[in-house]
């Protein structure tokens, strides 16, 4: 990987990345607290947050198990949710690096790092934003889980205090500027419509994947 320098990033971009990473850490606190309230030992959410590093799939994995599901089915559901990383990987293949460093670059690939990486104007800025966001989340996600496990049952359910809404709101704020392009807007709305229509008929996680069909919608 070529030399990485954060000095090429604008101050507003760095500030936005920091805020998103902090928001991820806040969600991780609720995740750690929820895992403890469900009766899981600390090592389970901590191992998931470190090795899997995929928030939605981790929540789904624990949720399926606590509801009586088979661990293998829970793992399969998590893999299904994370299948979106396949097109992500293609999109950021020039940002993750090569050889040994490329393994780390793939590990820190997530929704936020991909959004920030692809939204920058130059190759140098794209790589810097991708790595700054990815590494920030890779650190704050397990740290948040540890903090959440510490307060444990002292926190109410995440939905009670609105922590579950923080993450989607941040992502929506990042995506909105891209919707100024008519073609992008049409494809986004098409994907959203497909996803919503499939919710009553498909397992959790599948509607997100089906929303990718929206990319085939064309501007008329």
From TrEMBL:
It holds the Pfam family AzlC. GO terms for biological process: L-valine transmembrane transport. InterPro entries: Brnchd-chn_aa_trnsp_permease. Keywords: Cell membrane, Membrane, Transmembrane, Transmembrane helix, Transport. GO terms for cellular component: plasma membrane. It is found in: Cell membrane. It comes from the Bacteria. Coiled coil: none annotated. The chain crosses the membrane at residues 16-39, 59-81, 128-149, 161-179, 191-217. It is a multi-pass membrane protein. Belongs to the AzlC family. This is AzlC family ABC transporter permease. It comes from Scandinavium lactucae.
């Amino acid at each position: 990987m070529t030399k990485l320098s954060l000095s090429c990033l604008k101050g507003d971009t760095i500030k936005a990345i920091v805020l998103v990473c902090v928001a991820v850490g806040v969600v991780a606190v609720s995740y750690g607290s929820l895992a403890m309230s469900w009766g899981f030992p600390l090592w389970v959410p901590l191992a998931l947050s470190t090795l899997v590093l995929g928030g939605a799939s981790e929540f789904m994995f624990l949720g399926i198990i606590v509801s009586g599901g088979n661990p293998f089915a829970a793992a399969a559901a998590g893999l299904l949710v994370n299948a979106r990383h396949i097109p992500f990987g293609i999109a950021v293949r020039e940002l993750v690096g090569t050889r040994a460093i490329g393994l780390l670059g793939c590990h820190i690939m997530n929704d936020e790092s991909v959004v920030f990486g692809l939204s920058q104007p130059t190759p140098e800025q794209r790589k810097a934003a991708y790595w700054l966001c990815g590494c920030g989340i890779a650190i704050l996600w397990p740290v948040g889980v540890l903090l959440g496990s510490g307060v444990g049952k002292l926190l109410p359910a995440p939905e009670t205090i609105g922590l579950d809404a923080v993450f989607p709101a941040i992502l929506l704020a990042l995506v909105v500027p891209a919707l100024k392009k008519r073609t992008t807007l049409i494809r986004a709305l098409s994907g959203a419509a497909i996803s919503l229509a499939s919710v009553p008929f498909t397992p959790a996680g599948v509607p997100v994947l089906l929303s990718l069909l929206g990319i085939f919608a064309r501007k008329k």
